[in-house]
Give the backbone structure.
Amino acid sequence: MTMTISNEAPAMRAADFQGGDRIAIATVPRPVPADGEALVKIARTALCGSDFKLWHNGAQHIAGHEIAGYVDQPGHPLHGRLCAVYIPLHCGQCAPCLAGHTQSCVTVSSLIGWNRDGGYAEYVTVPDNCLLPVPDDIDADLAPLLLDTIGTSAHALRDAARHLAAEHPKVLVTGAGPVGLGVVLAAQALGYTNVHVSEPNPERARLAEEFGAILVPVGSKDHRFDLIVECSGNHAARNLAIELVLPKGVIVLVGENAAPWTITEDKVFRRKDFVMLRTFYFPKGDFDANVELLRANREKYAGFVDDAFPLDALPEKFAHFAEGRSIKPVLSFGEQS
């Protein structure tokens, strides 16, 4: 997908996460790409719950990490091309990178939108190896879903599948935010038909049920599972997963929580064999498979994007998102596709 890009003034507008649940919109210098980088004119940035900590505590850099935009650099091979932005910077030369685990580079530990400026702005600079060209049949509204919503969830399931003993696993997903809902769809793509979801938000629970999941009450101990994908980051849900996972089962920790988590090594923990995984983001090599997931479930994924708004509305819309009033709202620059 391409577009015609006009020259802009050397300044841009961007969100300033000031802490205390405050966001200001400011005019700042437009970034200048270094060697090996490209300037990207942002089309869409999806809001993500992991940014709540920046909303609460403030951000040193421009936040926003689920980004799709057009390369705005004449002479660049991808000039004018819609690209998704792969957020982990990676060297391409260390052992994990050479093995394809680009999300786990041990040479560079930096994330776009966290350790350098991200996508709640009109422009962002992106290393060339973090540009993921989006096929022409995927529009800008859906392109950011290829990252966290599809990429993170599908990687968690692909990694878990390597350890599963059950051929037809009984699955529980705890937390039906965008990643948890993405897990439901990715599980179906893997042929898992017995997928349960635990989610306190009625709207998200309803959507999970529409996607074919079986709802279970939050905190219920009525069933045990071969595979538990923990997407909420809630310590109580993590502890419950240890109790509910069957022998030879797998727990995948996807949700994030910066608070310390203590595991009690009681008999529930000690007296069975099980695997506990932590997965992060996704390897670049999964991108084509993620595109196919989006194509196969386009209408369902489109239902995730339940709001689109301009930069000036971000302070209000982010607060609504934090209250659970939307699933995957997107910051939208220019006309929506």
Remarks:
- The chain has ten helices and 15 strands.
